[in-house]
Automatic annotation (TrEMBL):
Organism in which the protein naturally occurs: Oscillibacter hominis
Catalytic activity as recorded in UniProt: ATP + protein L-histidine = ADP + protein N-phospho-L-histidine
Domain of life: Bacteria
Protein name: histidine kinase
PROSITE patterns the UniProt entry points to: HIS_KIN (PS50109)
The protein's Enzyme Commission number: 2.7.13.3
UniProt key word Kinase: yes
Record keywords: Kinase, Phosphoprotein, Transferase, Two-component regulatory system
Amino acid sequence: MDKALLLAAVGAILAAAAVMAHDRLRLSRILGEMDRMLDQAMNGSFIERDFDESRLSAVETKLAHYLTASAVSARNLSSEKDKIKSMISDISHQTKTPIANILLYAQLLSEQELTSEGRDCVKALTTQAEKLRFLIDALVKVSRLETGILALRPISAPVLPTVERTVAQAAPKAQAKGIELKLQPFEDTACFDPKWTAEALYNLLDNAVKYTAAGGTVTVRLTSYPLFCRVDVADTGMGIREEELPKVFGRFYRSPAVSGHEGTGLGLYLARQIAQGQGGYIKAASTLGKGSVFSLFLPREP
């Protein structure tokens, strides 16, 4: 009897071992097939080849359907991007000439002998045409960045030369308004696109000058951190209410407090898009009635 029990136990152990070996082989085959399918999916050579009623075949069929749908979506997205690119190009091209002509005729009119009312009309015409040109240019830039048509190309470079050029660009407007524009230089390097970073920084400077009263100060300073280079644009302007700070980077957002100033509500939005597009970000801090600080953070590494 003991011998029979022993034989039964050995048989059960062998049977269990056989079942386990079979399951391991089956699992290994399934994992191997899954690995093959994923490799083919990643390199674009996936072909559905098993047509049976197994669960592996069902997974393979679902993966094939998913990849087919993804490929169709990718083609549709590419087509839509091409359409948007063409539309943006058309808008930019078709509006440049009429606006340039309006400004040219306005200039020619201003050189004629006009009544006081006529000169005011010409001045208003010129101002509105310039505003329209700025708005269209800003919309085109934003659209190109959002759709990926226009790619940022960050490079490792010194930050100060770009900051100095941008400050020099904003200096005439600050001087005309009687605002002191100061730069506190600091040698540092970061990874950024010089052209588009200058665009973002100029938008911050332009806002600072615009919303600072005559006799005020706008200060640009650089601070070095282990992971970022920070460029601060600090002003002594009207400041921003705390509840409005999260909104100022929204597209077309303009505070009711600045409704009397010119602007489109795109400058800060565009600046943020540029910063984020190269791995950086922008922060804002403000005290109502005392001024604001907008900080542009540029990454040190790509």
